[in-house]
Amino acid sequence: MLLYEQIRKNKVKTVFIVTGFVLFVLLVGAAISYVNYGDAIPGLIFTPIFSLFYVGIVVMSSTNIVMKMNRAQEVTSVEEHRFLWHTVENMAMIARVPMPRIFIINDPSPNAFATGLKPEKAAVAVTTGLLDRLSREEVEGVIAHEVAHIKNYDVRLSTVTLALVSVIAIMSDIGSRMLFFRSIGGRRDQNQNPILLIIGLVLLVLAPLIAMLINMAISRNREFLADASGAELTRNPDALASALEKIANVETPVEQASSASAPLYFSDPLKKKVSGLFSTHPDPVERISRLRQM
Questions:
Q1: By the 8 A CB rule, do 44 and 26 touch?
Q2: pLDDT digits (tens, 9 = 90+) for 153-163
Q3: With the CA atoms of 245, 246, 250 and 253 taken in that order, what torsion angle do they form, in degrees rounded to the nearest 10?
Q4: Catalytic entry in 138, 146, 223, 232
Q5: Is 251 labeled as catalytic in the residue annotation?
Q6: Structure letter (DSSP) for residue 113
Q7: Which residues contact 78 (CB under 8 A, 6 or more apart)?
Q8: Whether the Cβ atoms of residue 188 and residue 37 lie closer than 8 Å to each other
Q9: Tens digits of per-residue pLDDT, 48-65?
């Protein structure tokens, strides 16, 4: 597949998935409202307000939260790590984005990730294992991949989708508790449509799982896009493919990585080797194959 055609298709696919995610959040709010009160309108009104408020708080503080979560130490001057500093600086210059903040995670497992609200507030983190185990060209390829995430606003998208997953989990929990207490009190709207009620109950139970699957789908799709965009920045897809091959073959997980931050990483940091719908990253073999064909 040609580079620019792959980039275009991934962008279009992401738009459809994200649109579906937003509609799903509204649907969950409507279902909770209908199941508890027999009217979906209050849920459709309250859900956007609550979502915007919660997502806003998470997005504004995302970089510091993620870096502390992964115990990343900031590199504040070129003297601290000249090669890494200049590599990030060069890739940012080629991508025409402001130079992101640089962090290092003291961990032998090679990996990296990017985060931030927007390019002006972005940050890139790499593990010591990435710098120790990969060649300079391979490190450059991984950095280009992460800078591509910043250029494509994937870092903001990842933060927002993760926040929406949390919103759905919170709403589902609140809705379940409300339903439980209303059942104890024996209060129920007799005018509720039985079919809609059943659909609402099923949605209430499965909403967190469905939200996680959508989030993983977005994450997988953006990895393909960042691979293509990163290859465009370096003009060296083989180096990125080689880096991915080395990282994928390492069995040791990143110790500080959590399930919450896992979708941000270049490659699955938890090394779960899960494929398909329950994977936060595409199959490395498929990613490598696409890069080799560029």
A1: yes
A2: 887 777 788 78
A3: -90
A4: 146
A5: no
A6: E
A7: 85, 86
A8: no
A9: 898 888 888 877 777 888
